[in-house]
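Page 37, continued from 36.
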């Protein structure tokens, strides 16, 4: 009985941990894209200012 309970708890913990890591991968990928877009916008604005000077 105890071993079955331990197995169930371990499987649940593994499943939850895997789900969290998969969700984090998507979040980190989106964050990377947002940072990249921000960098491009900053570079474009810097170029525009440099041309005006």
């Amino acid at each position: 009985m105890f071993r079955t309970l331990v197995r169930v708890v371990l499987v649940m913990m593994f499943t939850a941990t895997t789900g969290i890591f998969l969700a984090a991968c998507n979040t980190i990928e989106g964050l990377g894209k947002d940072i990249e877009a921000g960098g491009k916008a900053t570079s474009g604005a810097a170029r525009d200012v440099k041309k005006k000077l």
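Helices lie at 2-52. Flag for discussion at group meeting. DSSP finds one helix and no strands in the chain.
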